[in-house]
Write a structure and sequence with these properties.
Blueprint lengths: L1 H19 L7 H33 L3 H18 L1
Helix pairs in contact: 1-2, 1-3, 2-3
């Protein structure tokens, strides 16, 4: 159930990410990577695990688009479901 919820959250966030920069969209490979990474984190550790994961992404990753997409998913999860 949590996996389905996470996929739906990402789908809800995509229009807002796309509107942020109309000339550039988030690559499908980045979206798949986010879903692959966030599923186990959310299923095992819930929202607090996602917060730690997103914070760590900003600190360690060179792919800031991925971090922003993860952050958007976290915000939508918090605002819509918690």
């Amino acid at each position: 159930m949590k996996k389905l919820l996470l996929a739906n959250i990402l789908a809800l966030g995509l229009p807002s990410v796309a509107l942020a920069n109309l000339e550039k969209t988030v690559p499908i490979s980045t979206m798949k990577q986010v879903i692959k990474e966030l599923k186990p984190v959310f299923c095992n550790n819930g929202e607090s695990g996602l917060i730690k994961h997103v914070s760590n992404c900003y600190l360690t990753s060179n792919n800031k688009e991925k971090c922003m997409l993860e952050d958007t998913a976290l915000i939508i999860l918090h605002e819509q479901f918690i």
